[in-house]
Each structure stands twice: as structure tokens, then as C-alpha cells.
Specification:
The chain is α+β, with helices and mostly antiparallel strands. The protein has a single domain, classed as 2-Layer Sandwich (Heat Shock Protein 90), CATH 3.30.565. The chain contains 4 helices and 6 strands. Strand 3 and strand 4 form a beta hairpin. It starts with a strand and ends with a strand. It comes from Sinosporangium siamense.
Length: 152
């Protein structure tokens, strides 16, 4: 597993942007990676965001990673990998979960009904994140979300 916390911009860019911080984790495509990532992200954001954004970000990191390891090739293939990046800039937290995608399904919000135990991950992301989406990056898929500072 790789953990990098570094400045995202070169020094000359500081005059044009506020400071940003970036964390990157390379995770195994297994359920045990989810709580580990939540702990690392929690420590990374602890002094950077307000408690509400911290809580919401950890919830969404858990949901997006769980979806990745349960529903994509990253979780089904031996030695599957998931990459998690968290960027904090200008009061916005952006979370990217990058996996090997699925040939049978695409991420979508669905009605899980009241009797099912699962199926609410992207519904939570849709309700809590300020913005979210998916894209393809080469052979990999990215599911991302953004959360801004909460107004009292």
C-alpha cells in the first residue's frame, strides 16, 4: 500500500491558488481495505476540514470503496487493485476511487427498497455529495465525489 501526502502544486502556482493537499492509497481489492482506507483518510483530513465534512467524507469513502471491491473486477480478480485519492483544495474535498470497472454493470443510483440490506451506496453519495460522477480513464473506471464546507 502506498500513502503519499504531498503538495499538489509547484511553488510558483501558490500565487494563483490556495494550498492543496493530496493523499493517494493503493489498496487491495478486498473488503478489509475499506476500514483501513477510512482510518487513513480520517487522519489525513482531521485538521483540514470541519467535523461535518469529515464525517460525510468518511461515509462516502466507505461506500465508494465497498462498491468498488464488491461490484468490479478489482474485487473479483486475484490481486485486484483499487486506487483512492483524496484532494483538499479551496475548502473542497474531492474523492476519486479508481478501479478495473465491470463489464456487466455501471455505477448508478437505484431504489434499494425497504427490505434489502444493501444497494444504497450511490444513493447516499447522491444525497450527501455536492457533486459526483463517473468516467473512464484508460482501462480503468473512476467514481468521484466532491464535498464543500458546510454552512451552519
Amino acid at each position: 500500500m502506498e500513502l503519499n501526502a504531498e503538495e499538489d502544486d509547484p511553488p510558483h502556482a501558490a500565487a494563483h491558488r490556495s494550498p492543496s493537499t493530496l493523499m493517494r492509497l493503493e489498496l487491495g481489492g478486498e473488503v478489509a481495505s475499506v476500514p483501513l482506507a477510512r482510518r487513513r483518510v480520517g487522519a489525513f483530513l482531521a485538521s483540514r476540514v470541519c467535523p461535518d465534512v469529515w464525517d460525510d467524507t468518511l461515509l462516502l469513502v466507505g461506500e465508494l470503496l465497498a462498491n468498488s471491491v464488491l461490484h468490479t473486477a478489482s474485487g473479483r480478480e486475484p490481486y485486484g487493485k483499487v486506487t483512492l485519492t483524496v484532494l483538499h483544495r479551496d475548502g473542497v474535498v474531492r474523492v476519486d476511487v479508481i478501479d478495473d470497472g465491470s463489464t456487466t454493470s455501471a455505477p448508478r443510483v437505484r431504489d434499494a427498497g425497504t427490505e434489502r440490506e444493501g444497494g444504497r451506496g450511490l444513493l447516499l453519495v447522491d444525497r450527501i455529495a455536492d457533486r459526483w460522477g463517473t468516467c473512464v480513464h484508460g482501462a480503468r473506471r473512476v467514481v468521484w465525489c466532491e464535498l464543500g464546507e458546510r454552512k451552519p
